[in-house]
Amino acid sequence: MSDAVPVFSTPSPRIRRVAVDRPWVWLAQGWRDFLAIPRVSLTAGIGIVAISVLLTSVVLISGYVYLLLPLSAGFFFVAPVLAVGLYEVSRRREAGASTTLQEAVWACQRNGAQIALMGLVLMLLHLAWVRVATLLFALFFQNTNLSLDRWVETLFFSPVSLPFLVTGAAIGFILAAVAFGIGVISIPMLLDRDVNVFTAIATSWVAARINWAAMSLWAALIVVFTAIGLLTFYIGLAITVPLIAHASWHAYRDLVE
After folding, report:
1. Residue 220 pLDDT level (bands cut at 50, 70, 90)
2. Is the pTM of this model over 0.85?
3. In the chain, helix, strand, coil percent, each to 5?
4. What range defines the domain where residue 197 resides?
5. Is residue 13, in this structure, part of any structural domain at all?
6. Residue 1: inside a domain, yes or no?
């Protein structure tokens, strides 16, 4: 990991090359952060669980059952924004400082305008994915009234389920890959340094490109841990989201020289 690749023609920032199994180290470091300050981490995780339950309830009450899948998948787009306070916990712990819940909540004030702009970029990607999912549903399930008691049967066991799921997965994968590439270390970097969103996006993209093997493993681990949280009716997110967020901070610190 001695050689580093510059993002721009200027000397800084520079990206380190890391071993393919490095994400396991980030997870271990993130778990140590979680255990060191469990009250703040768990409170943030419970807050994310509450937001997830609220959004799901709104979708179900509104009758837009077909949006459950894209909204769940869209969690990967917006999670980095929701985790700003958790990045701050790891940042302050690395610096030897304690962190209160209030300090974590107001962490977005550090470079706030640029963090908000990055959040807008990720939110636009999420909205694009929801719009694509809506159009795909209308295309494949014309004149279908999807109800809660039949949505699994309709989406997974109807004659058009396979092409619908394959098409949706392919488009979703492309959008998710773009979101991951530009956002995997952008917000931790914006929180840590006085840089703009364009520098953060370029740095994140170069880090993902030159460490594609390690970052592919990291993306897969994020998917697995997030899926565990979703499949436990969001309860598991109270632990998996803080764990991923703390680990993401260490990924940023490991990758950006």
Report:
1. very high
2. yes
3. 75, 5, 20
4. 18-255
5. no
6. no
